[in-house]
UniProtKB/TrEMBL annotation:
Residues 48-333 form the Dihydroorotate dehydrogenase catalytic domain. It is an enzyme of class 1 (oxidoreductase). This is Dihydroorotate dehydrogenase (quinone). PROSITE patterns: DHODEHASE_1, DHODEHASE_2. FMN binds at residues 65-69, 89, 143, 176, 212, 240, 263, 290, 311-312. Its main location: membrane. GO terms for molecular function: dihydroorotate dehydrogenase (quinone) activity. It comes from Halobacterium salinarum (strain ATCC 33171 / DSM 3754 / JCM 8978 / NBRC 102687 / NCIMB 764 / 91-R6). Belongs to the dihydroorotate dehydrogenase family. Type 2 subfamily.
Length: 349
């Protein structure tokens, strides 16, 4: 059924498609239609429920950051059957992001390249919206990034300001130091810079607090970041963001566009990082990167992810993606004799 709609949507530039989709979901949310369609998309099964960083996730398949940057449609997205929604990235300042075009499809590769550059309405506006609007009854996290014009040295204040505006309403906070599209941002993954940001946020009361890492980090740097997360008693690690690398397997000319690659080509790499992180911490890991099927989600869960997220697969698979993954997960758990998703977390470690 998504086939027809997909051909129409794929005939338009990707960002236009995103805007149309978002507008439709905004309307659906305003008139309450999400409550009706949620019945079509939601899989309710106690075996799918996961407790992690103080939250109860009704199922382990979440909406990754970047789709709902301004926290406009969290209830409409929850209605699509996602077990949690991560809104943002939000920055302290309102930003237009990079010039268009800045989002590219690689259909033959089931991938996207984006260089959005943290386009968002800013912490004041998004914070006011989060405070005013009811949130869905699944956990909602906020992904926070650094404003483009803020020097790296002032990053702790910038992140803390954003947290002070958007943190109260949500269930968890993710520090994004891994987007490839804000110059210098990924340098903040270094131990001293990251410690300064995380400590400032902890002092400001951010809890649960997680950090999202790049798949391009060298293993030593990942190990350092995990050690820091352990030392600071952080609540979890999100692995991974998009990559600036381009696997040779990519066939579409858009592979040459600058930005972060997401989708199927980063699946394995992201799973490797989930495993690497999970082997080094007792804190929950959120697995993201190339999850499109139940098998993909299960692979990350067995590698140590407590919950998973996706973005690119919603574009290629359509609105039934969370339902399909959740139904498939139940079958995989049954096949392998696990009583629940929680039982399967880290089974391959
Ligand atoms: C258009 C686009 C915008 C994104 N924006 C953000 C963002 O603002 N913050 C963030 O942490 N990740 C962002 N991401 C990365 C996703 O959250 C996710 O980590 C990545 O796409 C890998 O998952 P996927 O393969 O399921 O898409 C974005 C991804 C895409 C495709």
């Amino acid at each position: 059924m998504y086939g027809l709609l997909k051909s129409a949507l794929f005939g338009l530039p990707p960002e236009t498609t995103h805007e149309i989709t978002t507008s439709a979901l905004r309307v659906a949310q305003r008139v309450g239609a999400h409550r009706a369609y949620a019945k079509q998309f939601t899989v309710t099964d106690p075996r799918l429920s996961v407790d992690a960083f103080g939250q109860t996730f009704p199922n382990p398949v979440g909406m990754a950051a970047g789709f709902d940057k301004n926290a406009e449609i969290p209830r409409a997205l929850a209605g699509l059957g996602f077990g949690h929604i991560e809104v943002g990235a939000v920055t302290a300042e309102r930003q237009p992001g990079n010039d268009r075009p800045r989002l590219f499809r690689l259909p033959d590769d089931n991938a996207l390249v984006n260089r959005m550059g943290f386009n968002n309405e800013g912490a004041d506006t998004v914070g006011a919206r989060l405070d005013a609007e009811p949130l869905p009854d699944v956990p909602v996290g906020v992904n926070i990034g650094k404003s483009k014009t803020t020097p790296l040295a002032d990053a702790p204040d910038d992140y803390t300001y954003t947290f002070s505006r958007v943190g109260d309403a949500v269930d968890y906070v993710v520090v994004n130091v891994s987007s490839p599209n804000t110059p210098g941002l990924r340098e903040l993954q270094g131990r001293d810079q990251l410690a300064a940001i995380l400590e400032a946020l902890q002092d400001a009361g951010a809890s649960p607090l997680l950090v999202k890492l790049s798949p391009d980090l060298h293993q030593d740097a990942v190990a350092d970041a995990v050690e820091l997360a352990n030392d600071l008693d952080l609540d979890g690690i999100v692995a991974t963001n998009t990559t600036t690398e381009r696997p040779e397997s990519l066939s579409h000319p858009h592979a040459g566009e600058q930005g972060g690659l997401s989708g199927a080509p980063i699946r394995e790499r992201a799973t490797e990082q989930v495993r690497f992180v999970a082997e080094r911490t007792d804190q929950p890991v959120v697995g993201v990167g190339g999850v499109a099927t139940a098998e993909d989600a299960y692979e990350k869960i067995r590698a140590g992810a407590s919950v998973v997220q996706l973005y690119t697969a919603l574009v290629y698979e359509g609105p039934w993606v969370a339902k399909r993954i959740n139904e498939g997960l139940v079958s995989l758990l049954e096949r392998d004799g696990f009583d629940s998703v929680e039982d399967a977390v880290g089974a391959d470690l």
